[in-house]
Each structure stands twice: as C-alpha cells, then as structure tokens.
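Regression check, FE2/S2 (inorganic) cluster case 410:
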Amino acid sequence: MTQPYSTARLIASRQPGFSLPRELYCGEQALQDDLQQIWYREWVFAIPSCEIARTGSFSTLQLGEYPVIIVRGADGRVRAFHNVCRHRGQRLCPKTSGSSPKLVCPYHQWTYDLDGKLLYARDMGEGFDPSRYGLKPVHCADIGGMIFVCVAPVPPSLADLAQNLMRYVGPSALAESKVAHSSTIIEKGNWKLVLENNRECYHCGGSHPSLCRTYSDDPLMTVMEGPNAASPEILAHWDRCDKANLPSRFVHGDNMQWRLARVPLMDDAESFTMSGKAAVSRRMGTIPWNDAGALMFYHFPSSWNHFLPDHAIVFRILPISPTETEVTTKWLVHKDAVEGEDYDLQKLTEVWLATNDEDRRVVEENQAGILSPAYEPGPYSPSQEAGVIHLVDWYCATMTERLGLQTAAE
Ligand code: 3BY
Ligand code: FES
Ligand code: FE
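Current build output:
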C-alpha cells in the first residue's frame, strides 16, 4: 500500500528535544497509527468507579472506532463490553450514562444481562443458541476507584501501576466519593497537543490567572528527579507526609508512562479555588490535613488527575479526529457531602472550568499554527518542558517499537 508518508519514518526523522513533525499532529494516517499502536493497545482511563456505584449503572465512551459500555453487575463487579449488539450490530446503548436493570437493544430489543449474557431474543427460530451471542467483553480494571479499559486482545501488564496507584489514591477513598460535576469539551487540536500542553507549566503564567493563585508554575514544583530528589519545599512536604503514612514521593512507570507525586500548593493553599481555601468542608477519605497538597497522577495516553484533600479532579482525553480531542473533566467529592451545605458548586468548579477553557484556546492556536506549511519543529525548554520531552519520548519509543515490529513481520 502506498502512503503519502510513513509515521515510522517521520518519527525516525524527528529531532529529540524538539516538537514533532507537522504530519504527526494533523495527518489522517498518523491518527490511524496512533489509534492502532497506542489507543487500541494501552489501558485507557475511562471513569471513576463511583460514577457507576449501583447495580445496573452504566457509562459509555467512544474509543476511536470502538463504542464501549462499562456496567456494574448484580454481583457488584464492574465489566466492560463492546457496545455493539450481537444481532445486527446496533450500538446497544446510545446514552453516555444511566442505569438499567438489563441492557436492551433499542432496535429489536435483544436483551442482555449486566454480565453480557444474552437473555432474550424474540422469534429467532428453533436451534438458535443464545449462549453464542453474548456481548463481547473488553478488558476492564478498577484500580482504587479509577476504571481503565483496554480493547486489545491481550492487554499490557497493569501490575506496577496498580500497585502504586492503589497505594497513593487509597487515602482519597475514591469508591466513597461521588461526581459533583462533569464537563466535556471538544478541543480543536491533536490529542498529543492536548497532552503536551498538560505536561508543562511554561504557559501557566501567561494563560492561567486563577490556577496560578494556588498552583506554582515554578518548574521545580513539577519536575522531580526521584523519590529523594526534588526542591527543598517538596522534600519537606514528603517528609511530613511520610510521618502521616500518606504516600507522596515521586514514583513513575517505564518510560515515564505514568507518574504519581503529591506536591504542596502555593502559600499553604488547600485547594484549587479562587480563595485557596477548601471548596468542600468534608475531606475525602483519610487525608489528614487540609494542606496535604495535590496528588498528581498522569497516565499516557489518556489521563491526568489531581487528588486534593477536599476534592479530586479526574481528566480523560479521547481522540476524535486528527485535529479534535474530547476532554472530559469530573469533580469528585465525599459521597455524603451535600451541595449548598458542604460545598458550593460554582466555587468548586470555577478554577478548572476556566483553566480548561484557557488550555483549549492555547491548544487550538497551537494546532492552527502547526497546520501552516511554514511550521517547523521547535526546541523544548529542558527545564520547563521536561514533562513534554517525557511524553514525546514515550510516544516515539512506543510507536517505533510497534511499527518496527509490524514492518519486520510483513
Ligand atoms: O440507552 C439506554 O438507556 C439503554 C439502557 C442500557 C442500554 N441502553 C440501550
Ligand atoms: Fe440489536 Fe437487532 S440489532 S436487536
Ligand atoms: Fe494549562
């Protein structure tokens, strides 16, 4: 098959430490390769488990070409399935979330149990064997209240991430929380631009007046070298957290695919609010102090998160087209916190609603500039954009390994 360019060749030609070649940010073939080699092979953060707390609660997402449904069964287990009816392929559930005792196809009402078994199909004739037409499963893992899915036949190992993530988010007791607010926006930018922008705070001072009230844009606050190598302020915070058995030190996965670290906010701020004070009077889980800082967790390719003492904010990105990305943000609070009494929704959400919109604008302008034939890759700041370098290095290494193997097998 002839292609206008090869993603593998473009990646091989890139200059380390520089932004990527143009086609990787806007080409149709690049997106197809990203989907095939990354999005359909990696674990993708889907939802917080508290969103489907009860039997029959479900949530759906569109992962590239794959519609997926995640549902809680009568046994309490969370399962994921391809959201595709086994009769004639209708998308089984068109809603993004809801609750239903059974999964009923809207077309001809084939009816599936919450574990995917086909329970009922009208007038299918003698010899029809419903056991052959259960929903197709998708790999699904609930790690400490964060649900990940993977559409690959054999998913990569989650052991290392699972062990660390459970330990770090454990004190936030995500399973004992609820979604106070959810926002979904489409950014007109390639998914890698959305993620690159998230991995640095070089732009924060110029773009995020409200976030910068409580979050330091000093690269020393986001760039950590190891569990004992960070700025004196962070090291002091980690010492204090250690004494309270609050896992906080920087840990990361192979090739920096994920990272966990708890960092203090500015001037003893408690939360990402305009005042710096907690937005929710009831703390989550067993976090011991209002000023425990933000546990930062990212996982490539789909997610970044902030677990604060009073609330958590989880973010999920999904590619929509070469130049469009869906960004979903959810604000979690203790399940017994009452809106209007324990928190004010506007105060809880205003900083990150504004920040998301500010990020959307810079990402869209970044994409608009890159669409120019005059764009050429430019250098990342080694101190300010080390996180972006980790991202593009992970991306290029992963793609090269997989596209390379594919070529060798041909
Ligand atoms: O979209 C719906 O409401 C239903 C419930 C579960 C499956 N779906 C067809
Ligand atoms: Fe689902 Fe016919 S396509 S019942
Ligand atoms: Fe930003």
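Comparison notes: The chain has nine helices and 17 strands. The pocket of FE2/S2 (inorganic) cluster (ligand 2) is lined by residues 85, 87-88, 90, 105, 107-108, 110 (CB under 6 Å). No diff flagged against the previous build.
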